[in-house]
Amino acid sequence: MSEAPPKLxxxxxxxxxxxxxxxxxxxxxxxxxxxxxxxxxxxxxxxxMIKIAAGLMPLDSGQILIDGQDVAAMPxxxxxxxxxxxxxxxxxxxxxxxxxxxxxxxxxxxxxxGVTRRQAKLRALEALDRVRISREVAEFYPSELSGxxxxxxxxxxxxxxxxxxxxxxxxxxxxxxxxxxxxNALIREQVKSLGCTAVSITHDLNxxxxxxxxxxxxxxxxxxxxxxxxxxxxxxxxxxDQFVHGDP
Amino acid sequence: MSSIPAPLQPLQAIGRSFLNxxxxxxxxAVFAGRAVLAVALPPWFPGQFARQLIxxxxxxxPVVGLTxxxxxxxxxxxxxxxxGRFNAEQIMPQIVALGITRELGPVLAALMLAxxxxxxxxxxxxxxxxxxxxxxxxxxxxxxxxYLIAPRLAAAVLVLPLLTVVADIIGIAGxxxxxxxxxxxxxxxxxxxxxxxxxxxxxxxxxxxAAVFGAIIALMGCxxxxxxxxxxxxxxxxxTNAVVSAAILIFAGDYLLTTVFTHT
Lengths: 248, 264
Ligand SMILES: Nc1ncnc2c1ncn2[C@@H]1O[C@H](COP(=O)(O)OP(=O)(O)OP(=O)(O)O)[C@@H](O)[C@H]1O
Ligand SMILES: [Mg+2]
Hints:
The complex is a heterodimer of chains A (about 250) and B (about 260).
Chain A: E1 8-16, E2 21-30, E3 35-39, H1 46-53, E4 61-66, E5 69-70, H2 76-81, E6 86-89, H3 101-105, H4 107-111, H5 117-130, H6 147-159, E7 165-169, H7 177-194, E8 197-201, H8 205-211, E9 214-219, E10 222-228, H9 238-245
Parallel strand pairs in A: 3-8, 3-9, 6-7, 7-8
Antiparallel strand pairs in A: 1-2, 1-4, 4-5, 9-10
Chain B: H1 9-40, H2 46-57, H3 61-84, H4 92-130, H5 133-139, H6 144-181, H7 187-197, H8 200-226, H9 231-262
Helix pairs in contact in B: 1-6, 2-6, 3-4, 3-6, 4-6, 4-8, 4-9, 6-8, 8-9
The structure holds adenosine-5'-triphosphate and magnesium ion.
């Protein structure tokens, strides 16, 4: 093991809305260039976990560390630049419905990175190609797409600027198996060939095995198991076994 | 907290709603401050601004024009009747012009836009909140205040005075049509009387009001949309609150500004 701090770390992160706490004390980290998969039952707080890490939601207590640095302790200037280092695929796609598909994908390039519209469109079309969205569809508006297509456009948008850390909230939910496998391969490739760090949420075990180097299980507001993706079938943890075998 | 004795419970309720008002006022003030900063400092989004100019301004022209025409006509008839009681019918053109430029032009244009524009802002931004598009803006390194709010605020502040000029002209024209068609006013004399009587401050003070109303309309729509929660129902609530609060603030602001203007 090298001495480098993890790329991203949740340290004793707690969060509650009205009612019982959603996250009690989450401790988890992912090394640079690795792919982490978070699994867990519906409503356990997986989406909340990655929104907190991406700075979209305040936490009640605990810390988020990027490259070993506490985000809350960063100078304001550096903290403002953080989103530029992240990419995020939202569970519901979250495409801008006033913009066409390719404008959605090119949004950050045009509006934040100062790339020309022509250049940005070329890069957007390339990214769309990789998620199997054709050039005709690139001119459509999000409301004209199926749910699975919207998801893939969201994926292209998250990856187009080659961010350091990408969060994927259920990247293959609602996709047919063939496209799902293609997306898994794409996430894998993004991590392996571009060296980015990926944090994915999925309910799909095959998907988790394929895209994850490591898998973590969130339950009752804490990480109850964490291990190599290959060990998921003999984790020795009752809760994970239950998830793997689908026992009620 | 039922430890408070029954006779004092109304006080508690009053205190709570007072605190709520203070909290909301503070939140709106902070929101407005951030919005003004976003208008003042780059990066700007000219494309978004242009889109809002068309949506807020151009598309509001018919509704503002129609309201102004009918109100000008009705005002003329009422003032004619009222003036008749003092044998002072002839002063009607001047009073109509004053009423329209100082008061009804800006207020009517603002009220129509509170319905059209405040509601649209709240609904659009509220829907974006509900579908996580505002979070998505963050992750795409774009400040929602700059991208969403600043263009709307700037467009509304710029457009409402322009719409008010239109409302002034069409409103006075409405009075003129009634006066010359159904009452026995001479067409040219009516216009000359109006023109000679009006001072530039009558018009300018109305336009200043309009700019303030424009800010109220944009801020109420954006604030309620931006802070909406709870899906489609939340969007509906945000829309209603935006229109109601904008309308109330327009009337209150109108009275305040009129007080200031009449003492200067
Ligand atoms: N903005 C919010 N306001 C209030 N409560 C919230 C909010 N976001 C999430 N919650 C609550 O937090 C809990 C966890 O939600 P979260 O979306 O993280 O679940 P999840 O693990 O992603 O589930 P799923 O697999 O169904 O997507 C839920 O009980 C939800 O009601
Ligand atoms: Mg979720």
